[in-house]
Amino acid sequence: MAPAAPSLLAIRDGAIGRRLTVFMALGFLALIGAGIAAAWVTSENQRHTRWVAHTYQVENSILNSRRLLEQGETARRGFLLAPGDRRFLDAYYTIADDLDPQLRRLERLTSDNPVQARLFARLYQRVSALAERRSRTVDLIDAGRIDQAVAAFRADSEAGRMREIRGIFDAMSQEERRLLDLRDAELNASEQWFYIVLGIAALLLAAVAAIAWVTISTYTRDLSHSRDQLSQLNESLEEIVADRTSDLTRANDEIQRFAYIVSHDLRSPLVNVMGFTAELEAASERLGGLIDRAAGEAPGLVTEEERLAAREDLPEAIGFIRTSTQKMDRLINAILQLSRQGRRVLAPEPIDLAQLVDNLRNTLSHRLDEAEAVLEAEGTLPSIVTDRFSIDQIVSNLVDNAIKYLKPGVPGRIVVRGWQTGTRVTIEVADNGRGIAPSDHQRVFDLFRRSGPQDRPGEGIGLATVRALVFRLGGTIEVASTLGEGATFRLNLPATLDMQDRTE
Amino acid sequence: MNAHQSVSIVMIEDDEGHARLIEKNIRRAGIMNEIRHFTDGTTALDYIFNDAGGPQRNGPALVLLDLNLPDMSGTDILQKIKSSDGPVKRTPVVVLTTTDDSREIQRCYDLGANVYITKPVNYENFAQAIRQLGLFLSVIQVPDLEER
């Protein structure tokens, strides 16, 4: 399960992010393209509308000019038929006055187009010529020379001047129509382009949306998949932890049992060694007596070597066997004691640490006096719920050690202090004794290991016991010390020992 | 016990050295009764229940029992003795062993052990304990197995 975890949990965040960014960019590009196309088409539309209006203006102008021209002609003819009627003459002049501005307007409107400009030039020329003849005709009528005027009029009609002018007007209109058609076609084309761009943008957007959706749903699926895997892993992790814990508990029990059996079975042969050593001692004592007697009664019988063997070598050998077996006995007892403590059932109860220190002071008063040392509790000690026997053993072992390793010539001061931090309680046992070299800070807690000058009795059991007890109480212990400047043992224990957490 | 010279001591102890030391110190206490030594449970039980000179068939006895035996636990022997039907069940059993586990001690008394002694490792104490046991043996009354 565990080895598969990293690959399962490696969600392709980077790749997903890059892909999504690309899709977003594409989508925005499509939108911008559509916007530009729309703007372009709108401006094209406006331009076209302007041109359509322009065309109508031109046409309007052409029609106006034509109408005025025709009206001028009609007025001339009217005046010719009824020379006495001045109204025709007035109308003619009014029309002639109006015509010129109208023609100017037409010229202005068509000036942008060379074809129209050319047509207009021709038109203007013809119209100017016509106007001149008309003026002359009208002047002749006005002067009463009707016949000459009629002749001039007829010549004009025969020359077909009006027809020609009408033709030019038609040509101009047609040209304008043609331009309008051209612009219509352009508009259509631009609209077509607009729809094409719009279509492409829509397609692009749809594609981007689809791909993004696929990507996100894949990503989500991956995520939920890895979440499932994670929760599965979590569950199996708890199982693994439970398994390991029970393994550890089993191993610990095994070690405890092993220590108990070993130390127990070691005792049996040791009883023999010590027992027969004692027998040997008694026997050698008797033999020594015999040698002494023999030496006294028959000096020649006992050599100096034999006397030394009986009187010195034997007792010496027996003495070494004795001290060694005694030491071994103490060591075995220590192991036995440790294993027994490991098997002891813990019974948490509220402990008054101040009371505990007081009791300890009473118990150790003799040794404290001897060492000229004081034991005191500093400040208010925290309350703690834990196993009474264990905490008692821990503190008394630490204080005992402190008394044991005071600095000669310096009045000893052993301080117990403590405080609570959250659910943990810290207890310090500090002394002003000889201290422990930093290199030995770990070693002092090992069984049968000691630090500094070996001038005090002991087997190196106390601190090992303390550490074993502290561990059993769910705590830790460390020492802070500089050689020659005292040592501070700091315990960190749970404020309330919860037996449910201890699976032992 | 001195009054009944026929009371024999059955010592079940797998360690020859311990057996020798125990015998020596019992003798030093002035107990001169016959001591039959067995190093395993099977032969000891066979002697107790089946042997013509054993307690079942022939006279009162006292059992010194070690709990750590190679072939069976001393408590099995204790149980067999105390749960038997014959006169053997009234035979006093002194458990003399290195085991000082409180549960084991309780179990032995529950099974009917008369005395439980832990062998001290220190030899002086050991010798003293055995000699005191000898003195104890010299004054206790052992039921006459003939009186059914």
Structural commentary:
The complex is a heterodimer of chains A (504) and B (148). Chain A is of the alpha+beta class and 504 residues long. Chain A is built from 11 helices and 7 strands. In chain A, helix 2 runs parallel beside helix 4 and helix 2 packs antiparallel against helix 6 (161-297). The model of chain A is unreliable at 1-9 (pLDDT under 50). Chain B has helices spanning 16-28, 41-50, 74-82, 102-111, 123-139, and strands spanning 8-12, 35-38, 61-65, 93-97, 115-118. Chain B has 148 residues and is an alpha/beta fold. The interface between A and B is medium-sized, with 17 and 15 residues.
Question: Helix and strand layout, with pairings?
Answer:
The complex is a heterodimer of chains A (504) and B (148).
Chain A: H1 5-9, H2 13-81, H3 86-110, H4 114-143, H5 146-159, H6 161-297, H7 304-343, E1 348-351, H8 353-363, H9 365-370, E2 373-377, E3 384-387, H10 388-404, E4 412-421, E5 424-430, H11 462-472, E6 476-481, E7 487-494
Parallel strand pairs in A: 2-4
Antiparallel strand pairs in A: 1-3, 4-5, 5-7, 6-7
Chain B: E1 8-12, H1 16-28, E2 35-38, H2 41-50, E3 61-65, H3 74-82, E4 93-97, H4 102-111, E5 115-118, H5 123-139
Parallel strand pairs in B: 1-2, 1-3, 3-4, 4-5
Helix pairs in contact in B: 1-5
